[in-house]
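Q: Sequence in, structure out?
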Amino acid sequence: MERVTKDNYYLDIAQTVAERGTCLRRLFGAIIVKNDTIVSTGYAGAPRGRKNCCDLKFCYREKLNIPRGERYELCRSVHAEANAIIAASREQTLGATLYLACISPDTHELLPGTTCCSMCKRLVINAGIEKVVVRDTKDEYRTILVSEWIEDDDSLSGTFGY
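A: Exactly. Output:
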């Protein structure tokens, strides 16, 4: 019997967490792992107590034809990475790994090539997370060293890498 790798094990969990998402455009799931222990999880959804887009049956950004990666201040959701960071203490996030998966809300298939938005990159950096592992396919993923986001400051170039 061949065991699933640790990274794919955690990515499987992040992908399951994404299924709880309430966004009509993308379902993201994130988990933070430190010392081989899951510290917290998060998925994209409206702040607690507010109505979710899936309940309202519309996306405000989509209604305004706002392209992906722009005008996040008009989004009702708290992103998955942000929710996972909020649920953890700084001690738990220092040196940790964040695992991220994104699926289509329509097909529930993986959406390859995704990454953290510029706002979530800043949160990940400040939380002291060491690396981000992003799922592209069931067996393929990318590992990003957060130090690269610090060195390659996309906020200065205007290219935000969505």
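The chain has eight helices and five strands.
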